[in-house]
Design brief:
Blueprint lengths: L3 E5 L3 H13 L3 E5 L2 H10 L4 E5 L7 H11 L4 E5 L4 H9 L4 E4 L4 H23 L3 H6 L1 E4 L2 E4 L4 E4 L2 E2 L4 H11 L8 H9 L8 H14 L9 E4 L3 E4 L2
Parallel strand pairs: 1-2, 1-3, 3-4, 4-5
Antiparallel strand pairs: 6-7, 7-8, 8-9, 10-11
Helix pairs in contact: 2-3, 4-9, 7-8, 7-9, 8-9
The protein binds calcium ion (CA).
């Protein structure tokens, strides 16, 4: 099945290049030239991945990202205009899965798209494999938290919580090796992987988002604990 990529980019020539590139790679593409149209298509067309520019007419990429995240966990890669740390961190806080800084090489962007689609394909496979035995083996239970590795699902007090793939990957990585402290660099390497040029604050931002979802009181975390000056660990 061909994955569908929604390209939200207002510069017509860049939009055209992206459509051309990903069509040639074998994907279906959809394109929008402004924020409101991008949001509408993201919600009505069910794309498998969204490339989202930050500077857009009508509604900026951050706002579009936030509004999509209210309704969907589709992978979102933000296209940030420059090496702007604020853009990166803000995008991730709003729930983007990844970002690519302009000017980017088509090769780099294609690699990121493939990596993000691969992760979400694994997630979709997990949803379909409802074998009970596998379920027991692949479930981590800690306090009021249940992490189902196969199904890419996290339940808090028995209720499924909305979580992005990156947040899930981070939680899974920490929870599978409870009490072991990982530096932010180590987490970046293991959870983000693939030539990730991000800085370690990416990890902090994702931890913060995760805590807001899984902790009763994010300022007094019980699950993901900060070891000052060292890193983070999962408290089983
Ligand atoms: Ca733009």
């Amino acid at each position: 099945m061909d994955a569908t990529i929604l390209i939200v980019e207002d510069e017509q020539n860049i939009n055209d290049i992206l459509v051309y590139t990903f069509t040639k790679e074998g994907y279906k593409t959809l394109s929008a030239l402004d924020g409101p149209k991008g949001l509408e298509m993201a919600l009505s067309e069910n794309p498998d991945l969204i490339l989202l520019d930050v500077m857009l007419p009508g509604m900026d990429g951050f706002e579009v990202c936030r509004k999509i995240r209210d309704k969907s966990d589709v992978p979102i890669i933000m296209l940030t205009a420059r090496e702007d740390e604020v853009d990166k961190v803000l995008g991730l806080e709003l729930g983007a899965d990844d970002y690519v800084t302009k000017p980017y090489s088509v090769r780099e962007l294609t690699a990121r798209v493939k990596a993000n689609l691969r992760r979400s394909a694994f997630a979709a496979e997990g949803e379909n494999s409802g074998d009970k035995n596998a379920e027991d083996k692949n479930t981590i239970i800690s306090g009021d938290l249940t992490i189902n590795i196969e199904r890419y699902e996290v339940l808090k007090k028995g209720k499924v919580i909305d979580i992005t793939l990156r947040e899930f990957d981070l939680l899974k990585f920490l929870a599978m090796q409870p009490e072991k402290i990982f530096s932010r660099e180590k987490l970046l390497e293991n959870v983000w992987g693939y030539e990730y040029y991000g800085d370690v604050r990416t990890v902090d931002v994702t931890v913060r988002r995760l805590r807001e979802k899984i902790e009763d009181d994010p300022s007094m975390p019980k699950y993901i604990i900060t070891k000052r000056g060292v890193g983070y660990y999962f408290n089983k």
